[in-house]
Amino acid sequence: MDPEEINEIKQKATEIEVLENELSSLSENAKVYRQLTNAPVFFLSKKSIIDDKIKNEKELYQDKVKEIKK
56: domain CATH number? Predict the structure, then answer.
């Protein structure tokens, strides 16, 4: 991997952690909007769905960061 790609992976992992922390401070009934990829439109979503998606992304990027550190 080139240094630019490594930095992008680390940055994305950090962004996911920040998002996870922000979501954890919300109540279960909070209105959460998410943006579809490459779309300027936001859609109302359930917090639990967003939490699951973030958890999956976090695991993916944690694996990539571990791979980088090897």
Answer: 1.10.287.370
